[in-house]
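queue> pop job 88
queue> type: inverse folding (structure -> sequence)
queue> payload:
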């Protein structure tokens, strides 16, 4: 008998780390993880098995499929927006081809078991592409189907993988006589995420968390975007809660496969003010990196998450004040004490 498990790819990354913590507390499932890196020490004991390797390795994935029955896949492994611009070919191989291999694995397991494998996929505000600042200012809260014109490799990868997930769920083997049991793809479009426990790397929304962590460490920080730059953000516990809640939502309550979720939207200047409220001595200046600025300028100010609220009861626990006052600042202070 193969063991029934939840599979998490990219488990050593920011979301993965917090997701393993959270799922292991509920104890509802055995967790198997895959990552290029070892698991961080503090979560090692919380998983049944960690496999160190790449999601682009088909032999590794086949071996995994032969050992485990996978109920849910949280596919978090990805190269983020800044890193993907530096090595776009690799980004495509990991973000798209790796996702395709996992979707194929989930499709096969769904058919073999006669039960849909749930495939939880984090997409991003990077799937949007506002053509200029005037349009960004005019359309402040974008809906899922609007402005889907990403200008980055990462954003294009995410948007395409959303379509692939929908294909595998709704249209896979559409020419065959019998409709197969297909996987159940569910996707969240996240804003910039902020964790008190891990530092982001390779993203372009990283200026927010970097500002805060630098202030807590007593280090100066030069923010790489203009003060007026506005996008939405979310505390990591809300990001994890959303992924788990979407995975648990009854299939018949879902009217779409891709959902925006948001918590609060603010400018880099407002982010800086908030950090200064708690770390009054922090040295935060601006040194704009024109190319990274160009990327953030294409991301919307905020996203409309009404469908997630209506279909599966999404609501963030942390608005801006609670996020800083109750989650980020107390935990970060303790971390760097
Ligand atoms: C990035 O900056 O690439 C990510 C994202 C917005 O998806 N944090």
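queue> result:
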């Amino acid at each position: 008998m193969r063991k029934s498990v939840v599979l998490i790819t990219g488990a050593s990354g920011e979301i993965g780390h917090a997701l393993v913590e959270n799922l292991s507390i509920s104890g509802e499932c055995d967790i198997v993880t895959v990552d290029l890196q070892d698991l961080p020490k503090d979560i090692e004991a919380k998983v049944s098995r960690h496999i160190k390797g790449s999601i682009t390795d088909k032999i590794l994935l086949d071996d995994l499929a032969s050992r485990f029955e996978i109920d849910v896949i949280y596919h978090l492994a990805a190269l983020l927006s800044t890193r993907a611009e530096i090595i776009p070919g690799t980004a495509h191989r990991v973000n798209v081809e790796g996702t395709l291999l996992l979707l194929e694995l989930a499709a096969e397991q769904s058919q073999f078991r006669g039960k849909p494998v749930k495939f939880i996929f984090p997409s991003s505000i990077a799937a949007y592409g506002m053509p200029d600042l005037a349009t960004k200012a005019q359309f402040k809260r974008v809906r899922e189907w609007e402005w889907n014109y990403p200008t980055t490799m990462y954003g294009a990868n995410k948007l395409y993988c959303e379509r692939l997930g929908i294909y595998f769920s709704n249209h896979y083997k559409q020419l065959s006589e019998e409709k197969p049991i297909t996987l159940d793809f569910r996707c969240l479009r996240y804003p910039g995420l902020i964790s008190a426990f891990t530092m982001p790397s390779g993203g372009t929304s990283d200026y927010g968390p970097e500002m805060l962590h630098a202030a807590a460490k007593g280090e100066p920080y030069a923010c790489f975007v203009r003060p007026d730059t506005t996008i939405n953000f979310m505390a990591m516990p809300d990001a994890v809660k959303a992924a788990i809640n979407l995975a648990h939502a009854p299939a018949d309550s879902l009217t779409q496969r891709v959902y925006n979720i948001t918590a609060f939207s603010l400018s880099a200047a407002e982010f800086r003010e908030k950090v200064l409220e708690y770390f009054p001595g922090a040295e935060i200046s601006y040194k704009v990196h024109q190319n990274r600025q160009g990327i953030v300028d294409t991301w919307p100010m905020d996203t409309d998450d009404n469908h997630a609220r209506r279909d599966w009861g999404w609501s963030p626990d942390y608005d801006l004040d609670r996020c800083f006052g109750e989650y980020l600042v107390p935990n970060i202070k303790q971390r760097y004490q």
